[in-house]
Amino acid sequence: METPIVVGCFAGLLITISLLQPLARRLGLAPSVLLAMVGTLIGIGAIFLLNTKYTDAFNTIAIVFVDPPLDAEKILYIFLPILLFQTSLTLDVRRIFEDIGPILVMAVVAVFAATFFIGLALYPLGNVSLVACLLLGAIVATTDPVAVVAIFRDIGAPARLGRIVEGESLLNDAAAIVIFILLLGILTGSHELDLAKALMAFLRSFIGGAIVGALVARLFVMLLPIMRDLPLAQVTLSLALPYVIYVLSDQFADVSAVVAVVSAGIVFNLYGPSRITLEDWDFLHHVWDQIAFWASSLIFVLASILIPRLVEGFQPIDILLLFVVAAAALVSRALVIFGLLPLLSLFRMGESVSTKFKTVMLWGGMRGAVTLTLALSVSEHQALSPEVATFVTKLATGFVLFTLLVYGTSLKPLIRLLGLNRLSARDEALRGQFLALALADVRQEVEQTAQDYQIEPRIADPVTETYAERARAAADASQAFADLKDKERVILGLIALADRERYLVLNHFNEKTVSRRAIALHLATAGQIADLTRSEGRAGYNKASRQALRFRFNFRFAQWLQRRLKIHRPLAILLADRFEYLLVCRIISNELVAFNHTRIRPLVGDRVGTILNDTLCARRDDILRAIDALRLQYPDYSDALETKFLRMTGFRLEDTAYAMAHSQALIGAELYNDLHGDLMRLRHETRDRPDLDLGLQTKDLLAKHSLFADLSAEHLSDIARMMRPTFATPGEKLMRKGEKGDLVYFIASGAVEVRTGTDTIRLGRGDVVGEMALVTGKPRSADVTALGYCQLLGLSASAFRTLLQKTPDLKAHMDRLSSERQSMNAPDASPKPDAGNA
Ligand code: CMP
Predict the structure, then answer these.
(1) Is 835 in the pocket of ligand 1 (CB under 6 A)?
(2) Where do the Cyclic nucleotide-binding domain residues begin and end (predicted)?
């Protein structure tokens, strides 16, 4: 085969692929459907040219297509890692983790169900072994959701549904391929058939793969910052990652290479963004989109070119088999979607999905590039008998084609039939509202442009007026739903606000005033707020925004590390994150209040506008309270963060000024590059967040505590060394009644609540809590909970005793306090108003 001809054919394929894209859009079909059709035609043409007696002129070209120079193993090795890696790179991983339960169940159960259904249905009809039938089942078990997800997005299906389908497809690729490899092992004789063993092997290879992938990806992520500001190098490194992992796990680690690649993609996607700039990350994504586009399009064309050759030997029985595969696949998918999904929502593991959407999910079960890649890899497998190889490849390829041609072309009509493409009244009103907002924006900008360019009003006015009119018409359209209840309008307003929030967050990020970590956190919150508002209305909005301020498990864990093991760093990092996050929240909540006032209120009316305003203000108050609490705790740190914020803004403005001067030819390229370089360096130095030192303040806090006010500086230092500064969050349980006492807290700021069982007492700054158990040796006499954010100074039991020995005054005080509190708690005692610190 001559190289120029092969290269020429390759170029021809690329031209075909690109020209088919606009055609697919015009015809309203998924591009893969057209690619498969055209590929088949190319295949038929090539066979015809090769066999025809009329001419031999094209034989050299035809042979390239009939017998492509890429063998199956190469196809598998080249394409599979990229396809899988790219899919996991595009997922909204954080959100997918929220639904990991249903996704995992759906993915793994659905794949097993399909493999068994298809395998068992084929076995009595085909003349190959059961394992070969199961192998086919595994290959066609994995679905390709691109078409469904795109359609879900078009018709405004709940975002969560789309995420579940996407997550499911990624994991079902992994599960199907693991089963595929196991079965292949059995077929080629390297494994024996033993269900228990096979299951263990499945688990080992799945979990092992996940671990290997995650570890290697972490390593690669750590390398990224070395290539700072060199996006081309970063992309190159990322391209190597799936291949490194694939080879490593396939050849050396004996774990599932596919699972490893998927897990690497997820880890890279999770940690990558915080290591490189937003522009570089976007660039990386774009390049990956392009690579995956090439890979999947080529796979489609290459595989479909082979179809005619495979079909040559197609006999009537094969058509029957194909229908059996299709029917079994449909039934097993229906069982999972209609049987398992409702079960999951019954156990509150997932949202309940309407029957219409379930129907679309069922009909959208198209098979794609992964199935084709596996089918091709089997076609030339040396260790497989030719009958098995042809049987599997023929049916798998045929089935992909079948799903594309039948499901792919009928999905949109089905959606129309189900009425899913019609906007609901609420969506229609939302659309009107949205348009009105957008058009009002455009109008303002056009007006401004006209002023800037000094275009006469005579010319400008008619143009701006058309926008004004359209905005009014859109507002009227949403007013046409005036019979919408206030409650509905509040929801519409909140949805618009939630969407606006995402926009604002991204804006702040683009202006480079805040770190990527804070933004990632904020984007996740904004998404959650939008989702919950859509499903639960105002209560959902409030719930999501409150949840965003809550301390999560990782925070509690970091606190535990700091308190028990004296490891400060994790808590310091989390607090710093929280601080930055809250500062962004505050800016954005102010912007939202203003946005509501100027834009939303005019559309939804005063009454609803006021409700929205109240909701926003309540949220802002929560944010302010949280900031105040932290500011109280770390005044210097909050100052440093605010300074940084301002400096970054300064850099941005400076940069814009230079760029403007350069574009206006006020300064030359050399000077501009010089200035820009200096600025980048400075910005880089400022970018790192100031360190949060948790240890420093102990002595200050101690000096402020009334109990220690009179002690000498030297004595104070001694005590400070023994103390553990602790930060408690609202609602945190500090002590439990009946427990053994092992420490005492001096309250430096904030307040705690003591519940003895009969009384509830508040203690605040300057008070001591937890001393009774240490003085009397009895168990804790009450439950103690932090009321707000508190700074506490903790002292262990032994340090407490040493301190009392050295400081007789303090000992007398503690004894008195303890016995006062005891007598107050005695069953016959009347409660005293003040049992705080004297
Ligand atoms: P201890 O018993 O170690 O744990 C619970 C703590 O709650 C207790 O020490 C006191 O510090 C505090 N406490 C118990 N009863 C009272 C009370 N009546 N007034 C104030 N504080 C109390």
Answers:
(1) yes
(2) 707-811
What's the rounded Cα separation, in Å, for the pair 152 and 357?
Answer: 9
* Cα torsion angle, 11, 17, 21, 26, sign: positive
Q: Quick one: pLDDT at residue 327? A: 94
CA–CA dist 582, 624 (Å, integer): 8
CA distance linking residue 379 with residue 390, whole number of Å? 6
* Residue 772 CA, ligand 1 centroid: distance in Å: 6
Tokens of 653: 């403005």
Distance 717 CA to ligand 1 centre (A): 27
The Cα–Cα gap between 79 and 302 comes to 12
Residue 765 DSSP SS3: coil
Element (H, E) at 828: none
- Name the residue among 346, 600, 622 with its Cα closest to residue 494: 600
Amino acid found at 145:
P
Q: What is the pLDDT of residue 696?
A: 47
Ligand 1 atom 8: residue of nearest CA:
770
Give the pLDDT score at 837: 47
d(CA 307, CA 236): 34
- Our answer on whether the CB atom of 734 is closer than 6 Å to any ligand 1 atom is no
CA angle 451, 453, 458 (to 5 degrees): 60
**Alpha-helix residue ranges (DSSP H) falling in 272-424:** 278-312, 316-334, 341-346, 355-363, 369-379, 386-402, 408-418
Q: What is the DSSP string of 551-585?
A: --HHHHHHHHHHHHS---HHHHHHHHHHHHHHHHH
C-alpha 236/C-alpha 230 separation (Å) is 10
Closest CA to 592 of 568, 623, 566, 563: 623
pLDDT at 155: 65
**Best probe residue, ligand 1, of 733, 746, 775, 784 (max atoms within 8 Å of C-beta):** 784
Predicted local distance difference test score (pLDDT) of residue 430: 67
The residue behind tokens 């607090």 is 575
- Please tell me the distance from the alpha carbon of residue 727 to that of residue 424, in angstroms, as a whole number: 49
Q: Is the CB of 741 under 6 A from ligand 1?
A: yes
Q: Given 3-state DSSP classes, what are the helix, strand and coil percentages for the chain, each rounded to the nearest 5?
A: 75, 5, 20
pLDDT at 245: 94
Residue of the nearest CA to atom 17 in ligand 1? 821
The series of mean pLDDT values per 10 residues for the chain, 838 residues long, is: 86 93 86 86 88 82 80 79 87 74 80 92 87 92 74 67 78 84 80 71 85 94 86 95 92 85 90 80 92 88 78 78 92 88 72 77 81 82 81 87 85 80 68 78 91 92 90 74 72 86 81 69 82 82 87 80 75 79 89 91 84 93 85 72 77 83 86 85 70 60 75 79 80 91 88 89 88 93 87 88 87 92 80 48
Measured CA to CA, the distance from residue 641 to residue 518 in angstroms comes to 13
Residue pair 142/370 in contact (Cβ under 8 Å)? The answer is yes
Q: Residue type for 382, please?
A: Q
* 709 φ, ψ (degrees, to nearest 5): -60, -35
DSSP 762: E
Ligand 1 closest atom vs CA 778: 2
- Distance between Cα 798 and ligand 1 center (Å): 19
> How close is the Cα of 821 to the center of ligand 1, in Å?
7
- Spatial contact of 604 and 475, defined as CB atoms under 8 Å apart: no
DSSP 657-717: HHHHHHHTTSS-HHHHHHHHHHHHHHHHHHHSPPP--SSTTHHHHHHHSGGGTTS-HHHHH
Tokens of 90: 């595009």
> Is 65:10 a contact under the CB 8 Å cutoff?
no
**Measured from the CB, is residue 752 less than 6 Å from ligand 1?**
no
**pLDDT value at residue 325:** 93
What separation in Å is there between the alpha carbon of 792 and the centre of ligand 1?
Answer: 15
Cα angle 214, 217, 218 (rounded to 5 degrees) comes to 85
